[in-house]
Design goal:
57% of the residues lie in helices and 22% in strands. The chain is of the alpha+beta class and 266 residues long. The chain has three domains: 16-63, no CATH class; 68-172, 2-Layer Sandwich (Tetrahydropterin Synthase, Chain A), CATH 3.30.479; 214-265, no CATH class. The strands form three sheets. Strands 3-2-5 form a three-stranded antiparallel sheet. A three-stranded antiparallel sheet has the order 6-7-8. A two-stranded antiparallel ribbon has the order 1-4. β6 and β7 (84-95) form a beta hairpin. The longest helix is centred in the last third of the chain and has 43 residues, at 170-212. The protein is rod-shaped, with a radius of gyration of 45 Å. The chain starts with a helix and ends with a helix. The relative contact order is 0.07.
Length: 266
């Protein structure tokens, strides 16, 4: 009889310990617990810390509130100007309402992943290649806004979306390289032309100043000779004024006219 009573007492103790272990749960600071009591969710999530459940009646579902980073796989994109490429991105999101995340959607993690992939293809397909390359911040903001609007009923907050890499076909890379090279050549020619224009304008101003004072031309000539001599050149050039050659040119022209008249007389 004593053995039966002791065995029953031990059984009761084991059952009590089992119920206590089932009733006591500990949640970390970054976790919340959604409690279903007889199939109905309690109006407020539990945690963090120690919580008590009714064994066999309450069911606990843990939800992680930490920021989640999802690397969107490379997606085949056709831009608005019909350029095919591969684009991947990173999405940062977190759960802000555990009740909605558990009740409103079956698997909020998988649903957010699929939504990020489809949204990435949709948004990138509505912009041109140049805008996608030069205005990434605008595209990132548009992606984050669309994702946040769709995931808000699920209790999910999308904080940031960043395009990581844009893989262009080799043919398109070559075409863009040629375009960039042609653009650099065009800028070089324009800069060279502007320099020639400014130099010509300055030379015209200098000629106007020299024309007002004839002696300044002689001084400039002597300064040039001095600069040539300072460089220790073996050859020195002396420019001859055109006025000294003009009489000889006139005499040559007269002789040519006389020879032409003699030939006509013959």
């Amino acid at each position: 009889m004593f053995q039966f009573i002791s065995g029953s007492f031990l059984f009761v103790i084991v059952i009590a310990v089992f119920f206590l272990m089932s009733a006591i749960k500990i949640l970390n600071e970054y976790e919340r617990g959604v409690v279903f009591r007889l199939g109905r969710a309690l109006p407020k999530a539990k945690g963090p810390g120690l919580i008590l459940l009714i064994p066999m009646i309450d069911k606990l579902t843990k939800v992680n509130l930490q920021l989640v980073t999802y690397d969107v796989p490379s997606q085949d994109i056709i831009t608005r100007d019909n350029v095919t490429m591969k684009v991947n991105a990173v999405v940062y999101f977190r759960v802000i309402d555990p009740l909605k995340a558990i009740i409103e959607v079956r698997d909020y993690w998988n649903a957010t992943q699929l939504l990020a992939q489809t949204t990435l293809r949709s948004v990138c397909g509505q912009v041109d290649l140049d805008e996608l390359l030069s205005a990434r911040e605008k595209v990132n903001a548009q992606l984050a806004e669309i994702l946040d609007q769709h995931t808000d009923p699920w209790g999910i907050k999308v904080t940031l979306v960043e395009l990581r890499a844009i893989d262009l076909p080799i043919e398109m890379q070559r075409a863009m390289a040629k375009q960039a090279e042609a653009e650099r050549e065009r800028r070089g020619k324009v800069i060279n032309a502007e320099g020639e224009f400014q130099a010509a304008a300055k030379m015209a101003e200098a000629a106007h100043v020299l024309a007002q004072e004839p002696m300044s031309l002689t001084l400039r000539y002597l300064q040039t000779l001095r600069e040539i001599a300072a460089e220790k050149n073996s050859t020195t050039l002396f420019p001859i004024p055109i006025d000294l050659i003009t009489p000889f040119i006139k005499m040559a022209n007269r002789w040519e006219k006389l020879e032409a008249l003699e030939e006509d007389k013959k």
